[in-house]
């Protein structure tokens, strides 16, 4: 089956919708500490769903992974673990900034760092700045940083409006921005993990896997790395805060009352599977982009930002804020979406 970029864009937007929506079920979890519900959801996101979908949709998964060079497995796992730190702090970003503001800032930074870090590490950044397509890319990154500053300004205005608690129970602008900065840098490692998994793609295609599903075995390895870093940190917090009883329906040291066990596990399962589906559809979209594959990352970021903004307004995160604050937020979001398009254009010009 040949490439179909139109279908690829559709899959990328489905992935963006899944990513922007995953945190919504967590809002319904009751009397579970943050590391408890994040870890439960993560088991579905990073272990159960990747293996289940890969086993169903690909051929001879065990044979493919056994034949994969050790270096490839290591790099995919390592980048996954680094991305896991970004995913871990991404959850905290949403906790302190809310859906629309948190995702806009964190993903804008992810788009920027995902573009800048590779040429910076390789020493090609100066060379890149000397080319027309490089200047377009750097211009897109600059737009991204301006957009982030404008969105941050909207957050400050929201504080000034006196509605910081509306829709976001633990709103903390300063803490959220600092966490978003770290999250944006580390989350960009996910793209590197997928790129490092190219040998796995070729092996699974050789086994007769449908090209649409060629990225699923890569996700098994990358997301296992993400699970490792998240598991270690969440376990530390759970043990430190005495939250272990919450897993069995008892009240932990930080919980106000015994948790509704079935409800919480069900909501975490939905959230975790939604989190995974963003990658499921991302790899499907990437497989269809053909020579436009460079645009996959920017399409993903832009779609998440747009859907997250819609969720933020639906969940009343900006209710009560002034018209000026909402206008500034709209300008910032538009700037972030425009920046991802400009970065994609620069990558396209560089591929010609």
Strand content: under 5%
Shape, per Cα inertia axes: globular
Total number of strands:
0
- Give the H and E element order: HHHHHHHHHHHHHH
Structural class: mainly alpha
Report helical residue fraction: over 70%
Q: Could you list the spans in which at least 5 consecutive residues all have pLDDT below 50?
A: none
Rg for CA atoms: 20 Å
Largest sheet: none
Mean pLDDT: 83
Number of domains: 1
**Cα distance spanning the termini:** 24 Å
Number of helices: 14
Characterization of the model:
The chain is mostly helical. The chain has one domain. The protein has 14 helices and no strands. Helix 4 runs antiparallel to helix 5, helix 4 runs antiparallel to helix 8 and helix 4 packs antiparallel against helix 9. The longest helix is centred in the middle third of the chain and has 30 residues. The two termini are 24 Å apart.
């Amino acid at each position: 089956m040949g490439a179909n970029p139109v279908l690829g864009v559709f899959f990328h937007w489905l992935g963006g919708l899944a990513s922007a929506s995953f945190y919504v079920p967590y809002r319904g979890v009751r009397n579970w500490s943050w590391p408890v519900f994040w870890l439960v959801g993560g088991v579905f996101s990073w272990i159960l769903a990747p293996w289940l979908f890969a086993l169903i949709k690909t051929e001879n998964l065990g044979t493919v992974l056994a034949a994969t060079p050790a270096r490839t497995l290591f790099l995919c796992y390592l980048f996954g673990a680094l991305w896991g730190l970004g995913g871990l702090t991404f959850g905290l970003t949403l906790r302190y900034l809310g859906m629309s503001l948190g995702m806009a800032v964190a993903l804008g930074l992810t788009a920027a760092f995902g573009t800048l870090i590779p040429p910076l590490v390789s020493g090609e950044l100066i060379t890149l700045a000397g080319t027309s397509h490089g200047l377009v890319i750097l211009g897109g990154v600059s737009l991204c940083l301006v957009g982030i500053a404008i969105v941050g300004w909207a957050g400050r205005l929201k504080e000034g409006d006196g509605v910081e608690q509306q829709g976001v129970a633990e709103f903390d602008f300063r803490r959220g921005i600092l966490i978003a900065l770290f999250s944006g840098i580390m989350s960009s490692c996910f793209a590197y993990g997928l790129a490092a998994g190219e040998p796995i793609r070729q092996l699974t295609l050789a086994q007769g896997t449908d090209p649409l599903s060629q990225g699923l075995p890569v996700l098994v390895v990358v997301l296992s790395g993400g699970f490792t870093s998240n598991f270690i940190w969440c376990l530390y917090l759970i043990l430190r805060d005495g939250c272990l009883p919450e897993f069995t329906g008892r009240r932990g040291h930080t919980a106000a009352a015994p948790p509704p066990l079935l409800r919480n596990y069900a909501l975490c399962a939905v959230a975790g599977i939604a989190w995974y589906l963003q990658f499921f559809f991302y790899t499907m979209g990437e497989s269809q982009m053909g020579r436009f594959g460079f645009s996959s990352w920017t399409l993903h970021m832009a779609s998440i930002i747009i859907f997250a903004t819609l969720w933020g307004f639906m969940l009343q995160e900006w209710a009560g804020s002034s018209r000026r604050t909402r206008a500034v937020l709209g300008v910032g979001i538009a700037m972030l979406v425009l920046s991802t398009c400009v970065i994609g254009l620069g990558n396209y010009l560089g591929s010609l």
